[in-house]
Amino acid sequence: MVSNVKSYTLIGVNAVEVLVQVDASRGMPGTIVVGLPDSAVKESRERVKAAIVNSGYPFPAKKIVINLAPADVKKEGTIYDLPISIGILVAQNIVSGKRLNEYLIAGELGLKGEIRKVKGALAAAILAKQKDYRGIILPAENAEEASLISGIEIIPIKHLSEAVAFLNGDIQIEPITKNLIENNFSFTIDMSDIAGQYHAKRAVEIAAAGGHNILFVGPPGSGKTMLSRRIPTILPPMTEKEIIETTQIYSAAGMLNGIITERPYRAPHHTVSDVALIGGGSSIKPGEVSLAHNGVLFLDEFPEFKRSALEALRQPIEDGEVTISRISGSVTFPAKFMLVAAMNPCPCGFYGFEDGVHYCTCSPAQVKRYRSKVSGPILDRIDIHVSLPAVKPEELAKMEKGESSEKIRKRVTKAHERQKERFKKLSFSFNGKMDSKAIKKFCKLTEQAEEILNRAVKTYALSARAYNRILKLSLTIADLDGSDVIQPKHIIETLGFRENISTN
Asked: Which residues form the AAA+ ATPase domain (predicted)?
C-alpha cells in the first residue's frame, strides 16, 4: 500500500510543495529514502523508527521505500520526520488517510515521539493558503509565526500520538487563530540620548524619510555607531506585509525567536565573508543583506570590508533583492534595507579632524590608499555623506538634549505616506530609489529654487549625477516640510551636503 502525505521544502524563503510517498511491501526489512534527500533527511529513518516504537505503535518488518517528490528538487532538514512517520502508520492502517489531502504536515521528531520546531513554517502556511488547503499540521513551537496567515487552520502538535489521534478524528485540536500584530516601540535607546551632532541627526532624519543610504565620516568616538543604532527608532512602524516578509526570512534562516515586529538592525563585523553578507553556502541561506530587509544594515569600518563583499552590495542596493546562483539553480532573497556606513577619514582616524589634541599621522599616499578601498560605484549609491566631528567632553554637559525619536518618527512617517501616495503606481516607494525619468517627472521646483540650483551647478561644476542627487534629497526635505514643490530653502539645505554628494 502506498500512502501520500503533503509537506514542503524551502527554496530561498519560499515553500514549495513536496509529496511524501511511503510504500511498505514484502522484502528484506529496511528503509530507503529517495528523491534527492540530504544527510539530515536520510538520518530521519532512525529517528522515525524510534519515535514510532516509543509512541506505542508497531514498526513494520517490511521493505519501506520513501519517495520525496518532485525528485529533482533537493530536500533538506528535519521537516519530513512527521510526514514520513504518518505515512508509515497510514501504510499499516493505524492512521486514516481520509484527512491527509486537507493539510500540509511538517515537524521534527524526537526519539520519544515529541515534535520539535522546523524552519520555514510561515512560508508553509502561505503555501497552504495558496493551494487552498484546509490548514497545516506543525510543531506547537511554530504555531505563532504560522498564525500570521489568516484563512487556514493552524494545528499545533506536541507529540506524534497527538497527530495520529487528530488525523483519526479521535480528538479535536483548537486551531491557532490569526495572531494580532502589535507594534510597540519599546526601544531602550532614543535619539535624544545624543548630545550635539545636530547636522548629523538632521541628515539621518532626511535619509530615513526618503530611503536614502548614508555614510558617516569622522574620527573615533564621534558617535557614528550611536547614531546608527538609533535609526530604527525613528523609522515608521512596520506594516503587516513587512512583518510577514521579515518574519518569513528569519524563519527560513532558522533564526526566529518570535514574530519580528521591530525593524531589523544588522551590524556585521568587517571580517564577514561574502557568503555571510550576501547569502549562499552549500545549502543556500539568506545573508545579512536579507536579514536587514525592511530595516537597517550598518557597516562600520566601511573600507575594512573585503572589496568583493562591498562590490556584491551593488545588486541589493539597486534592486532591493539579491540573486544567488549555483549549478543546481538560482535563489532570490528580498533585500530592501537602508544602508548606513561609517568610516574614519584615514587609517589613524584624524585627517581633517585635528582638534589640538589629536593630529593625523598619515601620509597623503596612505590617506588616498585607505579611501580608495571603497569604489566609486559603491559611493555613488550612497546619497548622503556626513562629516561627524567629535564632541569635546567638556562641551557635552553644556549641550541640551535633542528631539526625541518619537517626534522625529512622526515627521518621517508623514514623509513616507506622501511618497507612497506619489509612487503608488510604480515599483518603488521612496525618493531615494528614483531614476532620472522619475526625478524629471516628480521633482518640481519654484523659479527661485531652480535659479539657486543652476547657480550651484556652475559654481561647483557639479556633474549630472550630483545634480540628480541634489534633486532627490531636496524632494525628501520638501516632503518633511509638507511642501508639494521644492523651494529655495530645500535646495539650500541640500547644498549643505555639497562636498559629500558631489563625488564626480
From this structure: 210-392
